[in-house]
Each structure stands twice: as structure tokens, then as C-alpha cells.
Amino acid sequence: MREFIDARSQRNQAKLLGWIGLLADQGPHLPRPHADLLEDGIHELRVTLSGDQIRCLYFFCYRDFIVLTHAFVKTTGQVPKAEIRKTRSMRIDFLNRFDERQLREYF
Q1: Whole-number Å distance between alpha carbons of 7 and 45
Q2: By residue range, what is the domain housing residue 24?
């Protein structure tokens, strides 16, 4: 995510970070059109930057944490299944490496 954000203009970085802040504030209560549940606990943050449809995929874990996995420019009608699979794989890896206690100590 950091690389995706850093590669954007300063104006678009500010917009992305604002939307991520909105997600942090509202969590699972952030409604469409801002966010949506895709499937199997994988969500999308829906942002338009300079006319491009940007999707930031994420999941919730341990009640208080939102893990943003990656972002991409959406060019098809639906979020590609490959992007959802990528986030599922990242979620499995993340949950295998970190338990709630470790996250609470770190953050």
C-alpha cells in the first residue's frame, strides 16, 4: 500500500489518506459507495483518483485492526478474482505470523 500511495501525486496521496482515515474512523460501518464487502471477509475501499477507479483491498482482524493489503486501478466491471485471492493469501500469511497480543504490543 505504501508504494502505491507514494507513487501518486501529492494531491492524490492526500485524498487516499483521507479515505483511509475515514475507514479507520468508521470501520465496518463505512457504507457504499465508499466501501463494500466483496466476499469471505475481504472488503474494498472505493476511491476515484484523476478519473481512475482505485480499489484498496483490506480485511478486519482481532476486532480493532484493519489490514490494507494492496491497491490497484480497476479496469473491469467487477474486482478481479485474482485480486481477491491475493488478499486472501495475504490474510492467511498475516494471521499465521501475528497474533492479537503481538499486534497490540506493536501498535
Answers
A1: 18
A2: 2-106
Q: What is the CATH number of the domain that holds 35?
A: 3.30.2310
pLDDT in tens, 20-63: 999 999 999 999 999 999 999 999 999 999 999 999 999 999 98
Identify the three-state secondary structure at position 55. Answer: strand
**Cell of residue 16, nine digits:** 487516499
Alpha helix (H) residue ranges in 1-107: 2-6, 10-26, 81-97, 100-106
Q: Alpha carbon 55 to chain centroid distance?
A: 8
d(CA 45, CA 100): 24
For residue 53, which phi and psi values (nearest 5 degrees)? -85, 110
Instruction: For residue 26, give every residue at least 6 positions away whose Cβ sits within 8 Å of its Cβ, in sequence order, or none.
Output: none
Largest Cα separation within the chain, whole Å, is 41
Q: What predicted TM-score, i.e. pTM, was given to this entire model?
A: 0.92
